[in-house]
Specification:
Elements (H helix, E strand, L loop, with lengths): L2 H29 L4 H7 L4 H21 L1 H6 L2 H21 L3 H29 L5 H26 L6 H7 L2 H11 L6 H6 L4 H11 L5 H20 L10 H16 L2 H6 L1 H7 L5 H23 L4 H25 L1 H22 L9 H20 L10 H19 L1 H19 L1 H11 L6 H29 L2 H22 L8 H7 L4
Helix pairs in contact: 1-5, 1-6, 1-7, 1-9, 3-6, 3-23, 5-6, 5-8, 5-9, 6-7, 6-22, 6-23, 7-8, 7-16, 7-22, 11-12, 13-22, 13-23, 13-24, 15-16, 16-21, 17-21, 17-22, 17-24, 18-19, 18-20, 21-22, 22-23
Length: 528
């Protein structure tokens, strides 16, 4: 085999191995969906405790992204990737074997820490070993593997769901298999040559790896590459190594804003609560309809990776922004101009509130105070009154079961009247997912890993990831409260407005980094 072709294959394998951290990220994030109802019933959790149990991994992700730069710099990119696999493995086994909710929450938190650190280390490592002309799609494989992991988790849950009362343990424990394989694969990774030069000051080993990565280059060219990497380090030392400095204000602002707009597009809300939103759109089987979102996400993520080194990062962000604005705008218009969407929403609020009341009134239910029960009944009464305003249903019913029956009848009738409007909303959500996959989804991890200088790259990646995950956690926490009090249409309008701001930001501030060596990007941003 030609040396260049052989090296391309090795680069692909190394990049794919690092990107498999994203596969475990996607799998770990979604696999809990198949187990959450059983866990709530098994340990008789109150709504508050159940919410903490389900969100614990996400808060672990916030911590992992915040501290991820430290091991990535101190231990190195390769060692950090290896230990991420260990965290996933421990979390999978511990979650499956947990005997109480608090042990379970600790296990899920550990997995979340692995997720957070992986968003720092994996894209950064891939960007540092990739040739500049292929860096986009190679680093973008991390995002592709996240999406692929989500789909595999959904399929895995479906296959395991029939294994009896302990099926939930198998759903969570099966993650240990890809986790141990990924960890073993990491032993075959080379160390990052940029980390070796900028952090460890080991030029000799770095040049050997650069020679492996660039087999067509002679020793003089490899030495020139090493010189360019080395020359960038003293500039950073001159600023005493401070991350929060005026010198880095441009990349810091870019990392913050791309992460900020990523979450203010509403992507996590739409993915995490897709069945609920599709239910509000009138679909009788929202879970089946939601599968289409996952498939579109996978297909268009692949399209984004194919285009990122051809059209460039800025071009994909422009395409994605326009797609966001059109899809969110039409979706918001549909919800706000058709009153039957509001009727469906009010009916669903009644059904949800009645479900909480029934659960709290259960003989076997524990950890619930009288005030919680009173609050739940008050919420049901309020929801019933709201439904009565928009329908012929009476808010005064004798029992919870009767209230639910009426609400389901009202919801079914309103959903039927919606007709093609439901499919318009589904089409908009599919277009939204496609726009995200081609734009922000394909670009964010690549872009953040490119814009910081070598010795600040890990800290910069950690900052961007932390911004992303803290916003994801806050929006996920607030969504149930917002959707219970605000028409879904206004939510889409708000996200549409934010994407108009993103379009303005992309046009006026975002630089194009396609095909530019990492050391030259910092010159382009005025860091030298």
């Amino acid at each position: 085999m030609h040396p260049k072709r052989s090296m391309q294959n090795r680069l692909f394998i190394w990049s794919l191995t690092a990107a498999l951290a994203g596969f475990l990220f996607g799998f770990d994030t979604v696999v809990i969906s198949g187990a959450e109802k059983t866990i709530q019933s098994l340990w008789q959790l109150s709504p508050g405790t159940h919410g903490w149990a389900m969100s614990m991994a996400l808060w672990g992700t916030v911590l992992g992204s915040m501290i991820g730069g430290f091991p990535t710099d101190r231990l190195g990119r390769k060692s950090t990737l290896l230990w991420i696999g260990v965290l996933y493995f421990v979390s999978a086994i511990w979650s499956a074997a947990a005997t109480d909710v608090y042990s379970f929450m600790i296990a899920r938190f550990i997995g979340g820490v692995g997720v957070g650190i992986s968003t720092v280390a994996a894209p950064l490592y891939i960007s540092e070993i990739s040739p500049s002309g292929q860096r986009g799609w190679m680093a973008g494989m991390f995002q592709f593997n996240i999406v692929f992991g989500i789909l595999v988790a959904l399929v895995s849950n479906a296959l395991i769901s029939g294994l009896g009362e302990n099926a939930w343990r198998w759903m969570l424990g099966v993650e240990a298999i890809p986790a141990i394989l990924y960890t073993l694969f990491c032993f075959g990774l080379p160390k990052s040559p940029r980390w070796l030069i900028a952090v460890k000051k080991d030029r000799l080993t770095a040049e050997k790896i650069l020679t492996q990565i660039n087999p067509e280059s002679d020793q003089a060219k490899v030495s020139s590459m090493a010189d360019e990497i080395e020359q960038s380090a003293p500039q950073e030392d001159a600023s005493n190594g401070k991350f929060w400095s005026s010198q880095l204000r441009k990349p810091i602002a870019l990392a913050f804003l791309i992460a900020f707009f990523n979450q203010l597009s509403g992507i996590n809300i739409i993915l995490y609560f897709a069945p609920r939103l599709l239910g509000l759109a009138g679909f009788e089987d929202p879970f089946t309809a939601a599968i289409g979102l996952g498939l579109v996400n996978l297909v268009f993520t692949f399209v984004g990776l194919w285009l990122i080194d051809k059209l460039g990062r800025k071009s994909l962000l422009l395409i994605g922004s326009i797609g966001y604005i059109l899809s969110l705008g039409v979706c918001g218009w549909a919800f706000l101009t058709n009153d039957d969407f509001k009727v469906v929403s009010n009916a669903q609020n009644v059904i949800d509130a009645a479900g909480v009341v029934s659960m709290l009134d259960s003989v076997d239910y524990r950890e619930v105070s009288d005030s919680e029960k009173a609050n739940a009944r008050a919420a049901l009464g309020k929801a019933s009154v709201e439904l009565a305003k928009d329908s012929d249903a009476s808010g005064a019913r004798n029992g919870v079961a009767e209230i639910v029956t009426v609400a389901e009848e009202v919801k079914a009738a309103a959903s039927k009247r919606l007709g093609s409007s439901s499919y318009l909303v589904l089409g908009c959500l599919l277009a939204f997912i496609a726009s995200h996959a081609v734009g922000q989804g394909a670009v964010i991890w690549v872009f953040i890993s490119e814009i910081f200088p070598n010795s600040h790259r890990a800290a910069g990646q950690a900052f961007g990831c932390f911004t992303h995950w803290i916003l994801a956690a806050l929006l996920t926490l607030l969504f149930p409260i917002v959707i219970a009090n605000v028409d879904a249409g206004w939510l889409f309008v708000f996200f549409c407005f934010m994407m108009c701001l993103q379009l303005l930001w992309v046009v006026t501030m975002v630089p194009e980094t396609k095909g530019v060596p990492l050391e030259k990007i910092q010159k382009m941003l005025g860091l030298n």
